[in-house]
Amino acid sequence: GEAMDRRRSCGVADAVCDATDASCTEGAPEVVQTTRLYAGAIGQATAHLAETRLSWESQPRNIAIFLRRATKELIEPFEMLRDWLVSRYGVRIFVDPAAAEELVPGEATWTPEQRPHLADMIDLIITMGGDGTLLFVSSLFERSVPPVVAFNFGSLGFLTTWDFGKFRSSLTRIFEDQSHLNLRRRLHVTVVQFDEGDRPSQVSEYQVLNEVVVDRGSSPYMAGIDAYVDSQYCTTVAADGVILSTPTGSTAYSLSAGGPMVHPAVTGVLFTPISPHSLSFRPVVFPDRSVVRLQLPQSARGDAQVTLDGRVGPTLRPGDCVVVSISAFPLPCVAPLSDTHTWLASLATVLHWNDRRKQESLTSASYTETIAAARRAGEAEQAIDGGAREDGAVFDSSPTASESLDDRKTADRRRGTRRDRDKAAADGTVARSPAVARRPRHRRRAAAMEQAPELACAETIDDIESFMRHA
């Protein structure tokens, strides 16, 4: 146990320990058989943690598979994956207790007493679900975490970068040291609740991958939360709440609240207010060495609710506080590409970042077709409206490919009006145009008088229209 604490104090999980730095564990006894891997000089420069390649010292023996909850469609893919791993590598497969009870009964699992020691039991983790499944896996490990391979079976898939359709070739690459290891920082969250004598009555610790949220919960009042950074008063949050997130969580709830998108290799704590009362209250980013404390003042009008990666946490009473800092134990995610390639690909395919239609050249095929269609429409209109026609001419009313329904209706009205006018001129009568028919009755009478003075003796407009119909 002392040897494990010394190894963990370097800030890197057992799964990615500094095997190249002998001074870290010099003189320490052999630790429980666990994952045998290293990732370059990971203990030498934390600035390059995210740009490492996964390399195994010995083949993984114990693999844990986590399935998306209540999804029977994953039974067949799980059996395919299990059978292939066992037959090819001879590994032992474990499943999470919920899946062993609901989906795949009879599979090996672990007991609640063994859960705190999962990092010593498991060499590799495989998730079959979405981002929520990965968040659930992160919450199980309070300290070190084995490498995680996330196959996408979710609706979003921002963190699940592997395609299950290629799981054979993908896992072969992973076992043959041909994959990347992206270390995603987590937050260490401590919730301190006080009793009536201002003495700590309960202290709870959590590891958070995306964000911790402190909001007004079910209270109808606006939350008032005092924020401190490195024990120095920062501000009082007058809003619905505040989000403290990691760079990994910057594309989750924080982004919806107006926060920035931050590269996962950047170490820092994002401070994003939720619907703030002041429009000048904008999100900020604190360095990774900062310790942020959110405290509910004694004058608060209501309680506050803590939410950790979407899971409901403790309720804060006046005087309680939440202390947040960067965790020393990141989540090692196995990825086919580096963290920059993976992140930019997720922005483009999942969030459609800056996805817009590109402006085309005026000589492109689409613009050429648009101009040609306009030219054909103009020629058709000129053919309909142009010049006088001989009496009794036959007009082709068949629609062309470029005419729309409205264009055909307009053309039909014009043809019908001209035929009526030509017939009336030949018979010596006056045809009433649709424009005249839509005028008020007294204006229609005056217009009819101008066109046919011989109808001035008619007493009513109905007499005029009757005469015109029988002419």
From TrEMBL:
It holds the Pfam family NAD_kinase. Gene3D superfamilies: Probable inorganic polyphosphate/atp-NAD kinase, domain 1, Probable inorganic polyphosphate/atp-NAD kinase, domain 2. Residues 378-452 are annotated as: Disordered. The keyword Lyase does not apply. One of its GO terms (molecular function) is NAD+ kinase activity. Keywords: ATP-binding, Kinase, NAD, NADP, Nucleotide-binding, Transferase. InterPro entries: ATP-NAD_kinase_N, ATP-NAD_kinase_PpnK-typ_C, NAD/diacylglycerol_kinase_sf, NADK. One of its GO terms (biological process) is NAD+ metabolic process. Residues 426-437 have a biased composition (Low complexity). The keyword ATP-binding applies. Residues 405-425 have a biased composition (Basic and acidic residues). Belongs to the NAD kinase family. This is NAD(+) kinase. It comes from Sexangularia sp. CB-2014.
